[in-house]
Amino acid sequence: MLSSTYLLTQRAYIQQEYKTTYSADLLKRYLLWTRCYHPHSKFGLHLETNTSGDHKKILLAYVTTPRHEGPEVNREMAEKDTKVLYKAGEKRLGTDEKTFVQIFSERSAAHLAAITSYYHSMYGHSLKKAVKKETSGNFALALLTIVQCAENPAKYFAKVFPLP
Fold first, then answer.
1. Which GO terms describe its molecular function (predicted)?
2. Cα dihedral 132, 137, 143, 148 sign
3. Residue 146: CA atoms inside 13 Å, Cβ hemisphere, count?
């Protein structure tokens, strides 16, 4: 049987190696990865105590908001949401983070993937580029992770969990 000290040391080593290799915090990435594949899991209390600001708002909204996760997309609604996101971000001075939290937490992965497609065709660049321009820090990381998982989860996980 392995001692708990050994396991803690090993866990700390793995986290440090991940941070060195990928310049990212493994625990924060893990929380976001978990959300991509377990949309109805309940760990809101952990998020409540270990996050803050807009990052906390998006994560809590994402884990507590029920949403249909089927492949169906209401194209009219996706186009409307695209325009709303543009108006909440790039079109105005400052960013309306509440709008980003609402759309990113309430819409299905298929709906968000449709929004990314509309965004590019309507505004000439990707939604990811807009998110990077309009947001920062862990809030931006959360939004980008949600978008990337919506667009192509296999590609996202291949990138963050590369094979040796």
1. calcium ion binding; calcium-dependent phospholipid binding; phosphatidylserine binding
2. positive
3. 28
Distance CA 77, CA 81 (A): 6
Query: Do the domain assignments include residue 14?
Result: no
Check residue 159 and give its pLDDT: 81
**Cβ–Cβ < 8 Å for 88, 100:** yes
Q: Is residue 13 part of a domain?
A: no
Q: Is residue 68 part of a domain?
A: yes
Q: Identify the CATH number of the domain in which residue 30 sits.
A: 1.10.220.10
Handedness of CA 83, 147, 153, 105 (dihedral sign): negative
Query: What's the domain range around 97?
Result: 25-160
CA–CA dist 53, 66 (Å, integer): 22
95-124 per-position pLDDT tens digit: 999 999 999 999 999 999 999 999 999 999
73: nearest Cα among 120, 115, 40, 122: 115
**Does the global pTM surpass 0.90?**
no
Question: Which is more confident, 163 or 129?
Answer: 129
pLDDT at 42 over 70: no
Residue at 63 is within a domain: yes
